[in-house]
Specification:
It catalyses: O-succinyl-L-homoserine + hydrogen sulfide = L-homocysteine + succinate. There is one protein chain. This protein is of the alpha/beta class. The protein folds into 2 domains: about 15-260, Type I PLP-dependent aspartate aminotransferase-like (Major domain) (Aspartate Aminotransferase, domain 2, 3-Layer(aba) Sandwich), CATH 3.40.640.10; about 265-395, Aspartate Aminotransferase, domain 1 (Alpha-Beta Complex), CATH 3.90.1150.10. About 40% of the residues lie in helices and about 15% in strands. The strands form 2 sheets. It has a 7-stranded mixed β-sheet, sandwiched between helices. Helix 1 runs antiparallel to helix 10. The protein is built from 15 helices and 12 strands.
Length: about 400
């Protein structure tokens, strides 16, 4: 087999992550090339006209919406998620914005989990609202609240599962049934799990969004996002990206392709480290509680086992006694851990959600979603577990 742009689903996940989407050029290269060009030339004016008349993005015209390196990343990610197509974007937030632009119109309504990334909540409440679109925020776990918020104008249900930073889970099969019953779409942010651990489309979701910046890259090198779903829906998202321009650069797409090659191995290793660290943290006297779906004590552990396979992800959070002062003290005394709001890196990162990732929320909004002043989030990396524990043990 020389080309892998239509890699059969019969291949294992690890094989798809390395091979899918690569269509070799006339040079017969072994590694995927980076097409660092803004545009592509045509053999005639007639060919140019024919290419510009197409709406599929299957032929190269202009790199804002057609680039071979970006296309390879899109096809590989779609294969891994079990979707028909994917559209790459400039960031994870751009992926969510493109989804909103593709499927929402003035007068429509969205139901969104309260337990989402701070910028996601701000996008819906401060910007999407400017288009005359109303968002209802509800408890992620309370299916009756989702049902009560439904109206004839509901078009999208949006969830992040596991949630950032409390690792709450949505019952995706139950929400997908609710979405189908009301003829709307279920959109799932799969950033924390990636398709290596969770495939929302197989559980009934209509659309999956990613911040490729996180685990899909895995080393904190580049910004990017993606939307995955069926071909018809992705054609609408593609038209948004083509027209509005929140596109992924070819170089970043190539970086993400390299990340996907080791995705399954990394996610299993992140999960193993995170479970061990969560268990250790739960035994520390200064720690009030630990949020991690892999712990048997987590109230949704059974659901996590049903929806996630191969591990429970690399992100956990915990509450220390003493509020913000105590949390900042723990963070400031670490020597190896990186104090940063990013996650999904091979390097372990630590942050204080109430004043960083969710700092734009009001105190009331943070209280609603359980983000306490003493809460610390750790995205567990791939360093030796003993070294991560030793760095935290100084202050705990």
């Amino acid at each position: 087999m020389q080309n892998f742009d239509d890699l059969s689903a019969e291949f294992a996940f690890a094989t798809q992550a390395i091979r899918a989407g690569h269509r070799r050029t006339a040079e017969n290269e072994h590694n995927e090339p980076i097409f660092t060009t803004s545009s592509f030339v045509f053999s005639s004016a007639a060919e140019a006209a024919a290419r510009f008349a197409e709406e599929t993005g299957e032929h190269n015209i202009y790199s804002r919406f057609t680039n071979p390196t970006v296309r390879t990343f899109e096809q590989r990610l779609a294969c891994l998620e079990g979707g028909e197509a994917a559209v790459a974007t400039a960031s994870g937030m751009a992926a969510i914005l493109a989804t909103c632009l593709a499927f929402l119109s003035q007068g429509d309504e969205v139901i969104c989990s309260r337990s989402v990334f701070g910028s996601t909540a701000s996008l819906f409440s401060k910007f999407v609202s400017k288009w005359g679109i109303q968002t209802h925020f509800v408890d992620l776990q309370d299916l009756s609240a989702w049902q009560a918020a439904m109206t004839p104008r509901t078009r999208l249900l949006f969830v992040e599962t596991p949630s950032n930073p409390l690792c709450e889970l949505a019952n995706l099969q139950a929400l997908s049934q609710l979405a189908r019953a009301h003829a709307c779409k279920l959109v799932v942010d799969n950033c924390f799990c990636t398709p290596a651990l969770q495939r929302p489309l197989s559980l009934g979701a209509d659309i999956v969004v990613h911040s490729a910046t996180k685990y899909l890259d895995g080393q904190g090198r580049a910004l990017g996002g993606a939307v995955v779903g069926n071909a018809q829906d992705m054609a609408q998202v593609f038209n948004v990206v083509r027209t509005c321009g929140p596109c992924m650069s070819p170089f970043n797409a190539w970086v993400f392709l390299k990340g996907l090659e080791t995705l399954e191995l990394r996610m299993r290793a992140h999960s193993a480290n995170a479970l061990a660290l969560a268990t250790w943290l739960s035994e520390q006297p200064k720690v009030e509680k630990v949020h991690y779906a892999g712990l048997a004590s987590h109230p949704q552990h059974a659901l996590a086992k049903a929806q996630m396979h191969g591990g429970f992800g690399g992100v956990l959070s915990f509450v220390v006694r003493g509020g913000r002062e105590a949390a900042w003290s723990v963070i400031d005394q670490t020597q190896m851990l990186s104090i940063t709001g990013n996650l999904g890196d091979v390097k372990t990162t630590i942050t204080h959600p109430a004043t960083t990732t969710h700092g734009k929320l009001t105190p009331e909004q943070r209280a609603q979603v359980g983000i306490e002043d003493g809460l610390i989030r750790i995205a567990v990396g791939l360093e030796a577990l003993a070294d991560i524990q030793a760095d935290l043990a100084v202050s705990l």
